[in-house]
Amino acid sequence: STHCISSAASDVYKRQPGEVRALRTRGDFVLIEVRAGADSRWQRSQDRGRPGDPVDRATFISHEEAEEVALDDAGQALVATAEMANLVLFNDGPIDELHSDLEDLLESLA
Fold it and tell me: What is the pTM of this model?
């Protein structure tokens, strides 16, 4: 998945390259791709149990694949947006490990 660390850029969660291009006009914008394997993403989806989330892995994977490439400018484009990232952070471990990695990353960017 692709996320951005910047309070001004929280809407990048929509994962659209056009938004990234617009945010790049800011001098302080950094796009960080937070990448996790399919097994981790599936398990986290199941643990969250949000209404509307796929209940079987095949549907989950199908939904993810549909978000990889946008059909129009309004659609999510995970692959194209990820390719624009300045940095990649791997997130296959526990949440406290992610928090630690993010803190280290933020310190290095300061």
Answer: 0.71
The 10s digit of each residue's pLDDT in 4-23 is 444 344 444 557 888 888 98
* CB distance 89 to 33 below 8 Å: yes
The full DSSP string for the chain is -EEE--GGGGGGGG--HHHHHHHTTSTT--EEEEE--HHHHHHHHHHH--TTS-SSHHHHHHHHHHHHS-SSTTS--HHHHHTT-SEEEE--S-HHHHHHHHHHHHHHH-
Q: In what order do the strands lie in the sheet with 2-4?
A: 2-4, 31-35, 87-90
- What are the distances in angstroms from CA 78 to CA 13, 20, 71, 98? 10, 12, 12, 20
Q: CA dihedral defined by 66, 69, 73, 74, rounded to 10 degrees?
A: 30
